[in-house]
Amino acid sequence: MDPTDSDIVRVFSLNCWGIRYMSKHCQQRYVMIGEMLSIEKHDIVLLQEVWSEKDFLFLKNKLSYTHPHSHYFKSGVIGSGLAVFTKYRIHDTFLYRYSLNGYPYMAHHGDWFGGKAVGMVILTIGGRTAHVYVTHLHAEYCREKDSYLPHRVVQAWELQQFIRHTSAGADLVIVGGDLNMHPQDLGNRLLRSYTALKDSYLETTLYAGCEDGVTLIANNPFINKKELGPFKTGIRIDYILFKGSSKIDIHCDAMSVTKGSVPNHPFPYSDHEALTSTLRLKSHQPDESGGDKETKHQDFTKEKLAELVNIVTEARTEVKVGLHCTERMRYTAARTGVMGLALLLLQLAIAAVPWLALGAEQPFPKTSFYLLALLCFAILLTTSLLYVFYTIELKCLQGAEDQMRLCVGHLQERLRGFPLAQPHNVLQCPLP
Amino acid sequence: MDPTDSDIVRVFSLNCWGIRYMSKHCQQRYVMIGEMLSIEKHDIVLLQEVWSEKDFLFLKNKLSYTHPHSHYFKSGVIGSGLAVFTKYRIHDTFLYRYSLNGYPYMAHHGDWFGGKAVGMVILTIGGRTAHVYVTHLHAEYCREKDSYLPHRVVQAWELQQFIRHTSAGADLVIVGGDLNMHPQDLGNRLLRSYTALKDSYLETTLYAGCEDGVTLIANNPFINKKELGPFKTGIRIDYILFKGSSKIDIHCDAMSVTKGSVPNHPFPYSDHEALTSTLRLKSHQPDESGGDKETKHQDFTKEKLAELVNIVTEARTEVKVGLHCTERMRYTAARTGVMGLALLLLQLAIAAVPWLALGAEQPFPKTSFYLLALLCFAILLTTSLLYVFYTIELKCLQGAEDQMRLCVGHLQERLRGFPLAQPHNVLQCPLP
């Protein structure tokens, strides 16, 4: 292959909202999605919320000619919902399940049961090794009082760790998915700053779609306008990110986002909009030193390093807030459990030693007595499970905070290594 | 740094058996371990089963001069037990929690509560990037009827995935820990074949220790001889593995394993023996093509590829056995749950509609009635939790099996790519 050849890779990403029997017109929408994908023939298709394996298999069957290679990532109780279809052969896959992902007792939110994760597939595109990631982060149900923020920040932390550490051998990196974060949200800044991934929407030459690149829009008939809150027209939470390497330059020639309706169809593909990025790959000439410049140790400018230190510090603060909340919840669970146990022991004592109840004018009604015992037992069991769950959550938060502290220390040390007198000194560019 | 310089790195690994108040002489042993480490001054110390953070902090304090850099990996309810101490600065860390790790109701085995994982730290050793891994896999409680085998095989699968995918940018890789697998066990072959990691014991020039490199030995006073079963003298389940890269050659000059006693002390450091490997690093001269040969796509000989296909197929079979067992257990949980529910509903019906019990000569004794209801309720709750747990286990096993199937397909394709007429054709060496 001529190293100066340039290739076009069309990447598609969609959150399919595929909860069987719950999401509106679920099956009809999968038929629409399958038809569109088989006509459009994107090179790489990254889907989220394909909660049912049957729907994945339906798409796999439908796309067997246009996208002969596919992978469905399994995780959690329901699944991770993540699927990849591509015309390139998949050599290898790897799944990282986020350590924190909501609470099982928040069943109406359902995130915990979904086993949110980031999946990686390794492809060869015209002789180049592409590491393609698909992910879906915990949803934001209430922006003003977002109790899942520490979880999402830890997910963003683990996502950037996973991408950084597994992409050292890649010629190009493509990330697509529903990050459930606005462009300037902490987790998003953390991800993009640390990995140097570029945002298709910000980098594209041509753009077709709603203003501000929004992917959850008021015009979508499946969207409840109230959920968008102050963001009247919509929010941007789905992304296609990319980066090249010392060997490959990538440019986003075009990006398009659907606008809440599909021609000749009564409803859109999903409650999220579909994203398509057209990426142009261009091989570098080997540099003058005669060898490939390695990018395994990402090099930042002094400004970028300082910004990163601030972002990781901000993330650390958010994790500490999460730690404080979880400690409080664990304490409440422990206290309630102890009270339940005390009440149960008291009841057992009353049952075993009748004179304890002698003072009562009437005997303790048996039905109430047993119902109370049942309640105590249920409290004891529930609080024990919660105590274990919160302890695991604490360990994960502490672990993430430890890693962040270590990284901040390392980044600050690198920052101190920059010469003082040259404020705009750039040793090496962030990425070629 | 002169690229032909050779460096010595001394690596230490020990499973500390550090269950506070349960493991014998726990605190005294930590004092012994701390003293030995501060005298021996190994370059990299990899510890497992440091279950209490207090003990980690004790060692951190004790080793603050000899090993100023350390990291403790947090996971699960108790912790991962994994700790690293080193004289080299730690730049970055990453933790991968194994998706399967026993059962929470097997509390006497305790593995589930430990949150078994593999931790990675990135160090710079004389200008070279070292990726150092420490891990501890699920214990084997009964070799003849090992119900945790599918879990351990999936852990070994995830371990090799994690090492392969995160070490592409490394100049050298060091792995230490308690794998809970004999040298020829499936998971061990899988790990070493796929990653091309070398075993210190097999590669060393000088060896000092018990015969066959055993690390769980009959001579250790903390070992119950019965647990060793037919392996009278002991078994080898702790390892220090390593590999170089296109830039670095590594050779194991010496390896030593303790022999169940410590001079001037009444008991050994742990129930496991301590391992020390002396690794010699030697930089390659840049090869003749003028650039670095990349090893991101590991190259195998035809024989190695065929062997790997067989091993992954064997692992896939083991995972399928696990799938079958888990499906059966989930079915049992579901059936028991339905029976509990039916009994509870019957009781409620008896309570609500008195004529249902009219046929009885005596009324249903109230105490028995309520105790039975309590039992039904407990059964219903337990089986529901078990059902959710087994469903998660099934997803993990299915996910691992999918990945293995994909890998076998890819490996077989590479195997077909080898010319037929040259049975000993070697395109590229396994690793420099």
Automatic annotation (TrEMBL), chains A, B:
Domain Endonuclease/exonuclease/phosphatase: 39-272
Transmembrane segments: 338-357, 369-390
Membrane topology, record value: Multi-pass membrane protein
Keywords in alphabetical order: Hydrolase, Lipid metabolism, Magnesium, Membrane, Metal-binding, Sphingolipid metabolism, Transmembrane, Transmembrane helix
A Pfam family per the record: Exo_endo_phos
Subcellular location per the Swiss-Prot or TrEMBL entry: Membrane
Documented EC number(s): 3.1.4.12
Cellular component aspect of the GO annotation: membrane
The protein, known as: sphingomyelin phosphodiesterase
GO BP term, example: sphingolipid metabolic process
InterPro entries linked: Endo/exonu/phosph_ase_sf, Endo/exonuclease/phosphatase, Sph/SMPD2-like
Family: Belongs to the neutral sphingomyelinase family.
Pathway per the UniProt entry: Lipid metabolism; sphingolipid metabolism; Sphingolipid metabolism
Superkingdom, taxonomy of origin: Eukaryota
GO molecular function, one term: sphingomyelin phosphodiesterase activity
